[in-house]
Model the fold of this input.
Amino acid sequence: MDTVYLYDATLREGNQAEDIAFSLEDKLRITAKLDELGVHFVEGGWPTSNPKDFQYFKEIAAYDLKHTTVVAFGSTAKPGVPVEQDRNLQDLVQAGTKAVTIFGKSWDLHVTDVLGISLEENLALIESSVGYLKKYVEKVFFDAEHFLDGYKANPAYAVQVLQHAVAGGADWLVLCDTNGGSLPSEVSAIVTAVKQEFSVPLGIHAHNDSEVAVANTLAAVECGCTQVQCTVNGYGERCGNANLCSVIPNLKLKEAIPCITDDQLRKVSEVSRFVSELANMIQNKHQPFVGSSAFAHKAGVHVSAVKKSPVSYEHIPPESIGNTQRILLSDQAGKANILQKAREFKLDIASHDPLVQEILTDLKEREREGFQFEGAEASFELRMRRALGVRKRFFDLVGFRVIIEKKEEGETLSEATIMVKVGGNIEHTAAMGNGPVNALDNALRKALEKFFPALRKVALIDYKVRVLASGEGTGTRVRVLIETGDSVDTWGTVGVSENIIEASWQAMTDSITYKLLKDNLPNDTEKNEGVQ
Done:
């Protein structure tokens, strides 16, 4: 079968999910991660909707993406506004992407009752909007919003909508189950009928309101759709969208459809956890394919069988998607993850080295404490280097104090005093900040910059706090995730404690240590520079 193209909409559709709000930095990091996964198209956002999305398109243009084409999203022109003057269309062109997606109404009910225009006016809007964009953009994808409901209500008009999009020059027609109410049998019948009418490639965009978005997506592919619009972990409005992390392995492993390489497939689990961490959402451990329980075995009969033959209770090899088999209440799985990370970090460690088990044990202990290293790879690399004796100690904390002052009529003031030891030198300094964490960060940098001038180029990009589940109320543990960057790279670090300042300190010191480490590592070797 022909290649199926992966179109990820996490940065827009996922961002519309309740409790999710990606920062600009989150969106840039997720795009880079999806590029590593081999996703063909990443929908960056709607440039007209907010300044953050507009800025995203400016910044992502500087990224050297290897596999991904970034797509700007918008709608057809507003009724009564010439396409040359429509702000939405102008912003799509200004986004500077090689591809854009616009949606238009394909359900007659939406045209007359929501837009409040005639059916003929809607057709003209679609054709003129697509035609205008084709003058400036290489590829224009047309999302036929509410297509499946529209086809069921008035098939002739729904097909007319697609015909006018094609007349405007649309490169792909995407059939949307926007309400998520259709079943696989309906999707199959409608896609088959539409496929007979058009030579232009078809795509599918399925919502999960009936819990069949993945099934609907696969059904559409079997009937001829060659683009699948999904989101990581199924994040999206209401009940979400088709889950990219389920669609990819189903396509590649079950349907034998070439969409990404085997090496890229092994990144699916990592991408799932990475995005959930940046979304500040608890990872669904029972999620198919990528959840930590997806290949976990507890019942005695299952454990006995899977030790003899994994296929007895595992529908695919878990390592094929970057997951691992887990025998609950044992330590028989997980070493492959450590070895994979060692390869990524260019660390030399043999599979039989006892340090692999030591690192794995440390990882599991930290996870029990609440640490999560997806999205905080820098912290995990530092832990591995310490275990291997190849982590240099650049500074030591002597002590710090944070003072918060609040007066009845004034603003809250924060001041941090810190003492650190660098070599044989003691540096004692203080700094103000717009909060206790910011004050501590400012004081630490102030103390270290005289010894390490490169830290002047380092900036704290993002800061997230998650309260971990506990019955301790305000005394519960918190996890702090920090993203830091310099002129060439970004990295994530993590800290966990009952004290938010302590958790922040852990993440901050890891961040600075990682920067100093990577600046001091020679390009051709990872040899010891001083054991911590």
